[in-house]
Amino acid sequence: MTNQKPEWTSTDSVAWNSFLNTPTGQRLLEQVALSRPDLLSGGDTNNILIRSGEARQHEILVSLILTLAGGKIETDVADPVPSSYPDLNDDTMWNDGKSVNPEPQE
Predict the structure, then answer these.
(1) At residue 103, what are phi and psi to the nearest 5 degrees?
(2) What does the DSSP assignment read for 7-20?
(3) Of 17-21, 46-50, 69-73, where does mean pLDDT reach its minimum?
(4) d(CA 81, CA 79)
(5) Which long-range contacts (CB under 8 A, 24 or more apart) does 59-62 make?
(6) pLDDT for position 1
(7) Higher pLDDT, 23 or 53
(8) Extended beta strands in 1-106, E state
């Protein structure tokens, strides 16, 4: 490894896509998807924020793995833990009297 970002070429994408479409590649995708950190539903606020950041980073990693393949991956790997939490930025989903996105005042 070097401190320079290596170039990812179309040849790399083809090879990576081919691998991910093999039985071993499919098992890799499933194992990575299943390794997502569980979200915490209660406890210390800092722990909850740290865990949600870990879960978000995991989603970014899975997305990168698929993006680098540059093509269609034949997978039936589902999200192992569907989110039951409402969107944090959707004020209508939270009945707490507060607004993340306040209306502009005229």
Answers:
(1) -70, 140
(2) PPPHHHHHHHHHHH
(3) 69-73
(4) 6
(5) 61/32, 62/32, 62/33
(6) 62
(7) 23
(8) none
Cα radius of gyration rounded to whole Å, the chain: 19
Structure tokens at 68: 């680098």
> What is the chain's length?
106
Residues 15-49: b if buried by 16+ CB within 10 A, e if exposed: ebbeebbeeebbeebeeebeebeeeeeeeeeeeee
Tokens of 32: 């990575």
Residue whose pair of structure tokens reads 């890799």 in the numeric block: 28
Q: Are 100 and 89 in contact (CB under 8 A)?
A: yes
Token output for 93: 């989903």
Q: Which residue in 35, 61, 39 sits closest to 52, CA to CA?
A: 39
Q: Which residues are CB-contacts of 38 (< 8 A; sequence separation ≥ 6)?
A: 51, 81
| Nearest partner of 84 among 75, 76, 93, 92, judged by Cα | 93
